[in-house]
């Protein structure tokens, strides 16, 4: 199991593995002092080097046989494909995983295959922003090609806002941790047409290239920019049935265009009078703690479903539970240091609220979008209808108050 140190997903995947009685080797990008003590349970891999990871995993598997490889997020999807290929295990083609990982390659593959998706332009950061601004349509979206969680995604409505967005993204791409993560991709800026309309997310599982839809989430808050902080996801979708059919059809087209054939996929689409448009497609499951909204069959988690598929221990019942469910990724209230979170008990007491989870700690620095990438917490609801699930999330969020100490000028640079 490929688990970056920064992922939210570790507890839920490990809990699912324990429930299924699976022996797990945790591979992370940082070496553990316990690796020599527990050589079959821990492995250090540099996720930026898939070929080297595959070679090291192949040597490891000679001593400790491996039955499946699971990457839990975008940072590990390509590595999972490379290792699985080396071990002769079911996997996505490495090239397909790479295309899903890089938004520029994704756009090129979708365009070539005729999948409904935004028109796009790919620029180098070193190019002249003002000249680039004259080559695109407006409104448009500027974004890095490899960051997730809407980090660095900015809308521009004219040349002036285009240049401002370009310069802001360029600063993010120069941050040391972003440079290390992105490599050559940190030298690119993707620009694409802004597609208006309702936004939804499709959670699915590929089996032999066929897409099984596990859930369709509505995103009821408008996502029109200038930044794109996602807040509420609610399932089942309230889109009309023909619109849902169109959304699923375009998501499946996208998978075929990239060559994805196996494992979880997470797609984000917009729907308007022109039909469904594929905005993002990732060879991984839903991010953050959002998977906790999903229960299948007799109470299976999404992580259990993914592990069962990886080990070919498929279940006969992967239908989502009949109740509606929702999650709010709590927006960052302000930039600065978190001092306190008030109103937690009141929020948890709201009808139809299942849990309120705060994932930041006191003293931690909060960074809003577009520079930030982590939410301060998650609110979960479960109700008889999508409307009630959404209303509960909004009411619970209204009970919370984050006390944030403003960042001292220049303090960020001293850290």
From the structure above, extract its key features:
single chain, 415 residues, alpha+beta, Dna Ligase, domain 1, D-amino Acid Aminotransferase, Chain A, domain 1, 4-stranded antiparallel sheet, 13 helices, globular
Can you describe this structure?
The chain is an alpha+beta fold. Among the domains are: 10-98, no CATH class; 119-193, ATP-grasp fold, A domain (Dna Ligase, domain 1, 2-Layer Sandwich), CATH 3.30.1490; 323-415, ATP-grasp fold, B domain (D-amino Acid Aminotransferase, Chain A, domain 1, 2-Layer Sandwich). The chain is built from 13 helices and 17 strands. It has helices at 10-20, 50-63, 74-87, 94-101, 103-113, 129-133, 159-173, 176-182, 241-258, 302-310, 344-348, 386-399, 411-414, and strands at 26-28, 42-44, 120-124, 140-143, 154-156, 188-193, 198-207, 210-219, 232-235, 263-272, 275-282, 324-329, 336-342, 353-358, 365-366, 377-383, 401-405. The strands form five sheets. It has a four-stranded antiparallel β-sheet with strand order 3-6-4-5, with helices on both faces. A four-stranded antiparallel β-sheet has the order 8-7-10-11. A four-stranded antiparallel β-sheet has the order 9-12-16-14. Strand 10 (263-272) and strand 11 form a beta hairpin. Helix 1 (10-20) packs across helix 10. The protein is globular and about 60 Å long. The model has no long low-confidence stretch (mean pLDDT 94).
> Could you tell me the radius of gyration in angstroms?
21 Å
> CATH superfamily of the domain at 323-415, called what?
ATP-grasp fold, B domain
Major sheet: 4 strands, antiparallel
Known CATH architecture of the domain at 323-415: 2-Layer Sandwich
Based on CA inertia axes, which overall geometry fits?
Answer: globular
CATH-derived topology of the domain at 323-415: D-amino Acid Aminotransferase, Chain A, domain 1
Indicate the proportion of strand residues. 15-25%
Q: How far apart are the termini?
A: 32 Å
Strand order of the largest sheet: 3-6-4-5
Low-confidence stretches: none
CATH class of the domain at 323-415: Alpha Beta
The level of helicity is: 25-40%
């Amino acid at each position: 199991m490929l688990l970056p140190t920064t992922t939210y997903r570790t507890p839920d995947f490990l809990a699912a593995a324990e429930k299924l009685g699976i022996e797990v080797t945790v591979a992370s990008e940082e070496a553990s002092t316990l690796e020599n003590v527990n050589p079959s349970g821990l492995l250090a891999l540099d996720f930026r080097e898939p070929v080297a990871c595959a070679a090291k995993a192949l040597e490891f598997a000679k001593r400790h046989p491996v039955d499946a490889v699971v990457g839990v997020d975008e940072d590990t999807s390509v590595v999972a494909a490379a290792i699985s290929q080396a071990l002769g295990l079911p996997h996505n083609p490495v090239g397909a995983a790479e295309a899903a990982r890089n938004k520029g390659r994704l756009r090129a593959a979708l365009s070539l295959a005729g999948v409904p998706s935004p028109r796009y332009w790919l620029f180098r950061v070193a190019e002249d922003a003002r000249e680039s601004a004259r080559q695109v349509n407006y409104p448009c979206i500027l974004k890095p090609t490899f960051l997730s969680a809407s980090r660095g995604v900015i809308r521009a409505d004219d040349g002036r806002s285009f240049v401002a967005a370009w310069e802001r993204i360029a600063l993010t791409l120069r941050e040391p941790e972003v440079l290390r993560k992105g490599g050559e991709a940190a030298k690119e800026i993707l620009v694409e047409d802004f597609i208006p309309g309702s936004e939804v997310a499709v959670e699915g599982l590929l089996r032999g290239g066929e897409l099984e839809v596990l859930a369709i989430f509505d995103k009821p808050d408008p996502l029109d920019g200038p930044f794109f902080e996602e807040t509420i996801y609610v399932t089942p979708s309230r889109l009309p049935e023909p619109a849902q059919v169109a959304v699923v059809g375009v998501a499946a087209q996208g998978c075929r265009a990239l060559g994805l054939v196996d494992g979880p996929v997470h797609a984000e689409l917009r729907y308007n009078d022109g039909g469904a448009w594929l905005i993002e497609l990732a060879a991984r499951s839903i991010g953050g703690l959002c998977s906790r909204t999903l229960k299948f069959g007799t109470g299976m988690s999404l992580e259990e479903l993914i592990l069962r598929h990886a080990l070919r221990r498929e279940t006969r019942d992967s239908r989502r539970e009949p109740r509606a469910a929702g999650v709010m990724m709590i927006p960052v209230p302000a930039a600065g240091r978190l001092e306190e979170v008030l109103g937690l008990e009141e929020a948890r007491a709201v009808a139809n609220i299942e849990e309120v989870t705060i994932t930041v700690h006191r003293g931690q620095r909060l960074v809003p979008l577009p520079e930030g990438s982590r939410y301060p917490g998650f609110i979960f609801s479960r109700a008889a209808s999508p409307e009630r699930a959404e209303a509960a999330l909004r009411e619970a969020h209204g009970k919370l108050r984050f006390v944030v100490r403003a960042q001292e000028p220049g303090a960020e640079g001293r850290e």
